[in-house]
Amino acid sequence: MSESKTIAALKPTTVEVRVPSRMGFEKVAMSTAASVAKLMGFRDDRIEDLKTALAEACINAIEHGNRLNEKMSVGVVLSAGVDALEVKVMDDGKGMNRQPGKQDRPDIDQDARGRRAARHGHVSDSGAGGRSGVGGRHRWQQQLCPAGDPAG
Amino acid sequence: MQNETKARVEQLTSAAGHPVAVLRFEGDIASTSKDAVIGTYKALPKASTPLVLLDFTKVDYINSSGIALVIQLLIEASNCKQKVCAFGLSAHFTKVFTMVGIPKYAGLFADQTAALAAL
Fold it and tell me: Within a domain: residue B1?
């Protein structure tokens, strides 16, 4: 494929990767997403944003969705469209047990995890998440040229 | 899968002539990096180390758990009245560190020369 012909210019393409629920394997998903985004023509800084957003989504799925159960896996689906890359991250778990009314003990680690969601919002363009009976999912889109981006 | 975090300490002198402890990190900074980040910092003699530099030049990957460790280090340094600066972050991680408010507690610089000049 010539460098001037990107995947997006040819036809919508989907790439799927499944990684074990083990810390560190989010980097496999990151590398795959970075390759797809590069082929689509994303700028380097947008690829770094994508990698961070995807890493944090995968870590959430590994840690909170699958509760670090290595028998479970995290699925990542990268759908390359004409002007955007849609990313879906899915886990197999039931998620966290929340006890209504119980106040979590605040600590620095929890604080940083809370910031993970906020940070994710700053590096991705739009997103949604949810949990069904069979697992959790997180989906967002990374625009090739985000609205209002003078460099886009 | 994660690159082990390595940390070493080097003693330098700032442009103003003050002793500076430089913590040079290598590898990934993630949840498994507590000993390398916090352990190495805690081993510094507090009384004789009022200035600390964090070198991220050889760090490729920092996730939110790694950032939590850096924040923990900064809080402990603040409690000990130490001044901390960091350098060697990529443009992306400079953005991420800024996003989570780290510049309120540590100056971020492009390289060691700029950081030492500020101490």
Answer: no
